[in-house]
Amino acid sequence: MNTQETIAAIATGGSNSGIGIIRISGEEAVAVADRIYRSPKRKCLKEVESHTVHYGYIMEKDEILDEVLVLVMRGPSTYTGEDTVEIDCHGGMLVMERILRAVIRNGARLAQPGEFSKRAFLNGKMDLSKAEAVMDLIQAKNEYALKSSVSQLRGALYDKITGARQEILHEIAFIEAALDDPEHISLDHYPEKLGAKLRKLEEDLIKLKDSFQNGRMIREGIRTVIVGKPNAGKSSLLNLLLGEERAIVTDVAGTTRDILEENMNLSGISLNIVDTAGIRTTEDQVEKIGVSKARAYARDADLIIYVVDSSTSLDESDEEIIELIRERKALVLLNKTDLDAVTTEEELEKRVGHPIIPISAKEKTGVENLEKALKDMFFHGEVSFNDQVYITNVRHQRAVEEALDSLKLVEQSVRDQMPEDFYSIDLRNACDALGAITGDTVGEDLVNEIFSKFCMGK
Ligand code: GDP
């Protein structure tokens, strides 16, 4: 690894800011930096101690490009495991680009997206699940997503997966030892014991697999669709939640024809809200498209928010929506509580069988109850990261599913009283599938693909 080319990139964001960082990693990192660094005290970076900071200038020929601080960190105690230099310069895009160009002219090459993290992985500084957590951390949209990637970065998922793999490896080793040395190691009653162990392991993996739904919602937001008859106040609710005038609010029934999608944060929980045309039976072609889209969105949604206008009575369109939300995660909002009630809370509750949250989008009341209901519904009141490991990544979910499939095959072999050497193959497959999460058993192509999704300079 250490003989690879030295790479460099701007590690801070792609816009002007107070401070910018140019990162250089590889065998030549210090030498490259030395060629463009001038110290007022005539220091030479090659001679300084590791993990020290140095004041000076970045020079190109005789021109000063910037006044900087240079961090010199020798491997293996660095992010990539290689010699690393970070140049802290002023954060203007032009300055950063000029320094980067100077670095490249003096012996480094431009890093590909994710290449620093890829080197960290290849040099054994972090497993794949941690590397992916770095990317999630950078992209985290909300507080919970951030917490879950920090927990993954600290190795929660790694520990869980490694633990499961070790258990499986232990069984493989035992079977192989027994087959090699049948005189001393007996396999009597082993299949029953193995069966019991597998069931326990499967239970754990199923929990992990199921955490994906929550994990996805934490990371990407809860797919939410707002439904209700025209004029119920769906756009007003959306505007209230977003705190700005985005959807068009009018009092002509059926104006919200286009589907609007908004990502928003409600006390730390991300909602991807779709505001749709009111669901109602209609002859109007344009409106019909909106309605059918609304139905399609409702089918795929994690959550349906049903808005009812309390100043009108329930009719057959409401019946249709009530049918739609049966057996679904839904919040029913009784809107316009500032007006005289035609439809009461009790009446609505009786019809829908969900608890009712009274609100007034106009007077901006009832939002706290909506937030509370949301937390109760999705995260049992509190999102906890201490005792549960979440899977937030489709790749990880597939790997767990594969491992489960293989373990089921082992169980089947146990039931069918197959010879013991049959077990090893499927046990090994399960082990390999889990190894793909931590990166112990992945090929180069997959590694390249994963890291190519990283941002520049990471
Ligand atoms: P949508 O068709 O379901 O999106 O409904 P809109 O959000 O466009 O609202 C329809 C009408 O109801 C508008 O005139 C709103 O100002 C009004 N409206 C919405 N929410 C309330 C509310 O809580 N109280 C009152 N009095 N009017 C509301």
TrEMBL record:
GO molecular function list: GTP binding; GTPase activity; identical protein binding; metal ion binding
Pfam short name (any one): MMR_HSR1
Binding residues annotated for K(+), in chain numbering: 231, 250, 252, 255
Subcellular location: Cytoplasm
Cofactor: record remark: Binds 1 potassium ion per subunit.
A biological process from GO: tRNA wobble uridine modification
Cofactor(s) required for function per UniProt: K(+)
The family this protein is said to belong to: Belongs to the TRAFAC class TrmE-Era-EngA-EngB-Septin-like GTPase superfamily. TrmE GTPase family.
Listed NCBIfam families: mnmE_trmE_thdF, PRK05291.1-3, small_GTP
Protein name: tRNA modification GTPase MnmE
Originating species: Diplocloster agilis
Name of the gene encoding the protein in the UniProt record: mnmE
